[in-house]
């Protein structure tokens, strides 16, 4: 009996997944994913203008670029061909190799470099 109580109160004991309902598993997965969220980085005005100027230069050249941008509480990185600046949605269109185009807001861009 003493061994049973000692094992049942073990703080390192992990529960079997058979006891977790699917709804609880989804919420736990979402909770653990949200622990890695970051807040939006703040760029100063000079850095923001420099990124805009660099982006326009790369658009004129139709260059292949690597862009780091903020998306859904994460920093994403995409490599592809700059296609255009869409005036209606006010977003930059980048076309990764072999994928569908991605629309990125200029405010979300953190870094851009030519490949």
Overview of this protein structure:
A five-stranded antiparallel sheet has the order 4-3-2-1-5, with helices on one face. It has 115 residues and is of the alpha+beta class. The N and C termini lie far apart (67 Å). The mean pLDDT is 85. The chain has a domain at 45-114: Roll (SH3 type barrels). A hairpin with a 4-residue loop joins strand 2 (74-86) and strand 3 (91-96). It is built from three helices and five strands.
The parts where pLDDT drops under 50 for at least 5 residues are none
Q: How many DSSP E strands?
A: 5
Percentage of helical residues? 25-40%
Strand residues, percent: 25-35%
How is the CATH topology of the domain at 45-114 named? Answer: SH3 type barrels
* Distance between the ends: 67 Å
CATH architecture of the domain at 45-114: Roll
Q: Estimate the global geometry from the Cα principal axes.
A: elongated
Largest sheet: 5 strands, antiparallel
Q: Which structural class should the secondary elements be placed in?
A: alpha+beta
At the first level of CATH, the class of the domain at 45-114 is: Mainly Beta
Task: Output the number of helix runs.
Answer: 3
Looking at how many chains there are and whether they match, the oligomeric state comes to: single chain
List the helices and strands and how they pair.
Layout (H helix, E strand, L loop, with lengths): L1 H7 L13 H13 L10 H17 L2 E8 L2 E13 L4 E6 L5 E3 L4 E6 L1
Notable traits:
single chain; 115 residues; alpha+beta; SH3 type barrels; five-stranded antiparallel sheet; 5 strands; elongated
Task: Provide a brief overview of the structure.
This protein is an alpha+beta fold and 115 residues long. 32% of the residues lie in helices and 31% in strands.
């Amino acid at each position: 009996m003493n061994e049973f109580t000692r094992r049942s109160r073990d703080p390192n004991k992990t529960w079997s997944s058979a006891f977790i309902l699917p709804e609880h598993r989804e919420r736990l997965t979402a909770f653990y994913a949200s622990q890695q969220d970051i807040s939006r980085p703040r760029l100063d005005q000079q850095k923001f203008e420099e990124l805009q100027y660099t982006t326009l230069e790369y658009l004129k050249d139709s260059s292949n670029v690597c862009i780091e941008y903020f998306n859904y509480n994460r920093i994403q990185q995409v490599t592809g061909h700059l296609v255009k600046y869409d005036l209606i949605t006010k977003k930059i269109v980048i076309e990764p190799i072999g994928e569908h185009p991605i629309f990125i807001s200029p405010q979300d861009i953190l870094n851009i470099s030519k490949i």
